[in-house]
Amino acid sequence: MASEYFPLKEKTRYEYKFTSTEFEGSAKVFIDILDVKKKAGKLVAEARMVFELRDSHTTLYTITRDAKWLTTADGVITGGRREFPLPVKEGAKWEEPPDSSEIVSLSDKVSIGAGKFAKCMKIVTRLAAGDAGKSVRYYAPGVGYILEEYSGEDKTCELELLAVSKVPAEVKKGAKKAPKAED
Fold it and tell me: Who contacts 120 (Cβ-Cβ below 8 Å, separation ≥6)?
């Protein structure tokens, strides 16, 4: 079985450092995989993105893995996108007009705040056929999305994984159990 470059594990928190020319300093971004369900031949994960800079913004969205694609409905840098085709293979290319992407390597080594990773998938996206810049992102086997370097006409930014942990109990979605009545 091929390495899983974007595991969908319930109650997993990804903590990132995010820098951008759109603001001063660095933001913390948490991506929490809250729930994962099988639906008609696909996995659908309920995810929460918490963006902390001077204040905090929270967004709920889905991540879907079917037989052909791993797709996110939102994201830190560009919003939703097709992350990569399945099964993963070097040289795979796809279009999301006006952008085009390619898996250029499955053997990159990456050293970041969260550690050192080997056999990483590297995807290069040419923004507007390269006229508007490019994005380079890395996914580590068994870990997921670890690094993105984005250089576009409108902004330059970097998203770097700092840690992977469990979603803390105080921020878990509390819709599963009914609250105790305190009348």
Answer: 105, 106, 107, 108, 109, 110, 138, 139, 140, 141, 146
Domain range annotation of the chain: 12-165
- The pair of structure tokens assigned to 172 is 């878990």
Q: What is the pTM of this model?
A: 0.89
Q: What gap in Å lies between CA 19 and CA 149, rounded to an integer?
A: 10
Residue 80, both tokens: 């939703």
pLDDT, tens digit (0-9, with 9 covering 90-100), for 68-110: 999 999 999 988 999 999 999 999 999 999 999 999 999 999 9
- Cα torsion 73, 76, 81, 83 to 10°: value is -110
Kindly state the tokens that stand for 68. 């052909």
Which candidate, 155, 176, 177, 167, places its Cα nearest to that of 50?
167
Cα angle 21, 24, 25; round to 5: 110
What architecture is the 12-165 domain classified under in CATH?
Beta Barrel (2.40)
Whether 31 contacts 46, CB under 8 Å: no
Assigned token pair, 52: 């902390």
